[in-house]
Amino acid sequence: MALVSEFLGQLTLNFGGSEPKFPTVVAARDFDPAKDAARIETAVKTKGVDELTIIDILTRRSYSQRREIAFEYEKRSKKDMITALKGALSGSLEAVILGLMKSTAQYDASEIKGSIKGLGTDEETLIEMVCSRSAEELVEIKRVYKELFKKELEKDVAGDTSGDFRSLLLALVQALYEAGVKRKGTDVATWITIMSERSVPHLQKVFDRYKSYSPYDMQESIRKEVKGDLEKSFLTLVECFENKQQYFANRLSEAMKGKSAKEKVVTRIVVSRCEVDLMKIRTEFKKLNQKSLYQTIAEHTKGDYQKVLLSLCGGDD
Question: Residue 248 needs a FRET pair 20 to 30 A away by CA distance; which of 104, 111, 148, 219 works?
Answer without folding.
Answer: 148
